[in-house]
Task: structure prediction
Amino acid sequence: MTSTFRTLTVPLDGTASAGGLPQFLVRDDVLCWTRREAGLVGFGEIARFTATGPERFLEADIWWRHLVLEADITDSVELPGTGPVAFGSFAFSKKSTHVSRLIVPEIVVGVRDGRYWLTQLTVDDGELTEAGALAALAGWLSGGSTAGDVPAEPAGAVVRPLPSADGATLHTGSLSEEDWMAAVAAGVAEIRTGALEKLVLARDIVATVPSGVNAAQVLRELAVRYRECWTYGVDGLVGATPEMLIQVEGRTAQARVLAGTLDRRDAHGESGIPMDYAERVLAGSEKQRHEHEIAIQSLTSQLAPFSEAMNAHDEPFILELPNVWHLASDVKAELAEVEGHVPTCLALINALHPTAAVCGTPTLVAGALIRKLEHLDRGPYAGPVGWLDAAGNGEWGIALRGAVIEDPHTVRLYAGCGIVDGSQPEAELAETWAKFRPMLESLGISN
Result:
């Protein structure tokens, strides 16, 4: 860039914004990160970084730090997420052809602890003013939906239609249900040889929506239905993840680890309190607790070299979502200085990704087996998605419970399961359908 990168952040009157961030989700090309009506939404684009391969996180980190190093920043709010901000989405695999990206928007609206702010970002000459920022926001909001402004992705294989009663049609993706269950069985067989402890296998399905995909409506539905999750939207990647890979505020890093899943529909007909049922079946299951413990150890061992102190729940808790229950644990760490500075979000992601929760353990063995059995380029599915600011703060979830909008009428949905010794292919297939449910519901498709 030849011009100076400049930003202006000002308070935004929230009295007319009682609905929080979801009310700003009015465009299909919006950038989105929201939970409990707070977070960030972005409009437009003034800069973009793309990369593929094993160095994608570090290359993005260098690009961002250089961009903000000499930025002209005016920020009267000074909260995490104010000032310069970039939204990002990264491919799951270092071998993927999918392009990882950081996107710097023109306008950002933020909400945190009831405080609203507005940031305008530019590389053009000219004065930034509060009036100009408000006018720019109004222009983006009045533009309404921009259906069709989504990136095209390779469609991949579509095999056979699945039943749908909603006008939309569902198709299997890279593998039929039978072939995917065979892959699960093959994974269990590998685990029983002692080659690995855990394997995470994903599958995809494709929804064709004749009336058109309304990405803004999908994001609003997810944000309202799944308030305890982080709803994300970046370049046609949309979803609501319950899993936080890493959140950094100053020198404090936090993560939420999930492993162990129970479909809430399985509780129908059970006597007593549903949460009691979840406690009994999840927390009382040796298989589920073993899977969870592997995920926790994976994260904490990778985070430890960057930390002065760390704590995690002694016992996992039950995370209750509208579609499933999960065994969950929160991890908190105080970051140590490494070579004279606190590690950035993207440096931490480079060390942490992929965790056992989305890949398996050992990582290299699991990754190779995934490529052999899935017959699927996951693209951004199960990769990091989120945002970062110039101060080093950021929130990066794992892109789960999501989909890629491939064209105005086509959406590819992804779901995966942790496979351990004792996993049953039929049960794992049913779990994928439970995990597809948030996206199917947001698209208006019943299953």
